[in-house]
Amino acid sequence: MVGQRAQHSPVSLLLLIHLCLLHLRASGQPHPTPEAPAEEVVSVQGVRGGSVELACGSGPAPLLVLWSFTPLGSLVPRPVAVTDGAMSKVEAIASALGVVSLRNSSLVLGELHEGARGHFLCQVLHVAGGQLHTAYSHLTLAVLVPVSKPQVRLSNPTPVEGASVVATCAVREGTEPVTFAWQHRASRGLGEALVGVTEPLFQLDPVNRTHLGWYMCSASNSVNRLSSDGAFLDVIYGPDKPVITMEPLGLTEEGFWASEREEVTLSCLAASNPPSHYVWLRDHTQVHTGPTYVIARAGRVHTGLYTCLARNSYLDTRTQTTVQLTIYYLPEGQPSCAVHPSPEAVTLLCAWPGGLPPAQLQWEGPQGPGPTAPSNVTWSHAAAQLPSGSVFTCTGQHPALAPPALCTVMLWEPLGRPTCWSTATMGDQFIMLSCEWPGGEPPATLGWLDEQQQPLGGSSSSMAVHLLQAQEDLAGREFTCRGTHLLRTPDPHCHLQLEAPQLDVAEPRVSVLEGGEAWLECSLRGGTPPAQLLWLGPQQQKVDPGTSGFMLHPEGAQLRLGIYDADPAHHRGTYQCVARNAVGNSSQSVLLEVLRYPAPPNVTISRLTYGRHRREVQLQWAILGPGNLTGFLVQQKASALGPGAGAWETAASDIEPESRGRRLGGLDPGVLYAFRILALNHHTAGHPSEVKIPADPPFSAYPAVLGAAGTGMVVATVASLLVFQYAARHPETFPRLETPTTTPGLDPAQETTDSPVNVTITVTATP
């Protein structure tokens, strides 16, 4: 009967069997027939989104296969699919498991859902031995979920150093067990694994600056492995105590040093996040902002305390470091070497004061190196061991100086002998004895001795000076200057004897003509100290170089006095030449006679007439009597008869002695002048001539008459020509003159004639 229904209505039969089987299994427990084999439970794994095939055992070809599904936590099976080999049926609820299909008796689940996790039951109906038998297959499906991409979460992305930070690796889904791994990569470096951290959460307590950087985690299960993006942990710290460096590097116990005039770079670094802001202070005064402070040209004013202030702007925290910068500078100039002699030894001195730090000095001589000391070093030697020409060198070294500085001294004796002389000072109140012996190293020592060879004052190097109060009893006394030098024996000396001056004059009597030139000569003979020469005039006044009419001309031991344009009234008399020094004086007299020239002859004016327009005069004169003359002098003045009478003025003075006439111009026609003339013999003038007033020149009519006659003739000729020309052009104006016909018997006087026409031509001649 079952076979018939299967043939006629297979689907209905399948459903009926399906319902029966479900009913038999409603309790969830199998009820196998006695011939049914024992049930098997198979565990199957699938991956979400993937596919899995559930096999329904093995055996003879089934008549009917029924798949059911019981979710985890449920006891009620749910039909999924059924097939009789020819036809299959998948229930709608199977879509919750994925894409469900049947392949023979196997259940294929594609695009697997997590809802497919649970128990699957495969019931098989087959015929064996002519009887229906059932078989059951139990399968447990585990749906595995891949881990999702993990995310790193930091409890505080910007913690302050010392705080606590929790890092979490979050995975949204994934089938357990999930394994975690962490990796840390510094901001400027390669990543490194954090060994021993396998949990999704780890704690940094306390956090420090080494924890700064990127953090990544990876999650893995039996399905897959994924890594997260990095999360940056920005640890805030600092600033640490700044570290100051300098270029070029120069270290001292207090800090740094640099040479004067070189470029100095100060750098400051304080570890901080965020980076520090830097401020530079010099002696508590801000000079720069930034990590690097450059001094382009270091000077002494740059010496001081330099403080670097570092500030973290996020935390508003500050730290600072102070260093001392010392600018080293050289001493001024170069080392100086000197020698100080003593009777039996010589002391070498080397000095180079100043500088920072002081220069280190060391002597070196012919026998090798000597002592060393800062700024000043002294070295003593026995004089007997030092020949002339010994060389000693002082070497100066300084940190700011590359090659060392040197000074050298060579010992040698001065040449020649001492030289003595004397001079008067302060108006001859004192006598200065001087002695010099130049050269030598060390310089010679000089001292003055009196006549008893007793020292006068102290001794000195190279030059000795001693002052004596001037008095007359010093004349004739002798003084000695003695010189000593460690390389010279015996001691040389020079002598000096004081004496009053003596004078000589070339001529005690000198004559000169008036206006001439005279020279008075005076010579100094002896005198120590050197005497002063001067001339006194006739009135005992001192003749200075700027005195008018005089000229002083010194020549060695002579003093010449020149008198120019000698004048008897001013220059005649006795002159004295005086020589003075601090121990006495002397004088010599010279008589100067100024002689006059003889008087020239008298002069008389022979003619004095005005020229044209009265602006000049013609003067002629004559000599009266014998005599010498060198020229003439013409004088003029406004005449007393005129309105402008005045004093005599020179009209001409450069007239040669041979001249006897002179034309004088530049006169005012409105002024009446008077003239006179004098003869000159050098500076001697003769008696003036008589005073005369210029006369007008005599009148001459002959030239005027000749001029008038000539002019009249020219005018008459021109007038006649004009009349004749007029008559020729107008004949009717003038009557024609005909010869009268004489009639016999008539008296000529009775004849009738025309009245005559009178023509008058007047010619006027103007001179």
From TrEMBL:
A Pfam family recorded for this sequence: Ig_3
Signal peptide segment: 1-28
Keyword line: Disulfide bond, Glycoprotein, Immunoglobulin domain, Membrane, Signal, Transmembrane, Transmembrane helix
Membrane-spanning segments: 701-724
UniProt feature, compositional bias: Polar residues: 739-754
UniProt-listed InterPro entries: FN3_dom (IPR003961), FN3_sf (IPR036116), Ig-like_dom (IPR007110), Ig-like_dom_sf (IPR036179), Ig-like_fold (IPR013783), Ig_sub (IPR003599), Ig_sub2 (IPR003598), IgSF_CEA-related (IPR052598)
Record domain Fibronectin type-III: where: 599-699
Superkingdom of origin: Eukaryota
Keyword Transmembrane helix tagged: yes
Keyword Hydrolase belongs to the record: no
Spans annotated as Disordered: 735-754
Ig-like domain segment(s): 150-227, 242-324, 404-485, 501-593
Name assigned to this protein: V-set and immunoglobulin domain containing 10 like 2
Organism name: Pan paniscus (Pygmy chimpanzee)
Protein encoded by which gene: VSIG10L2
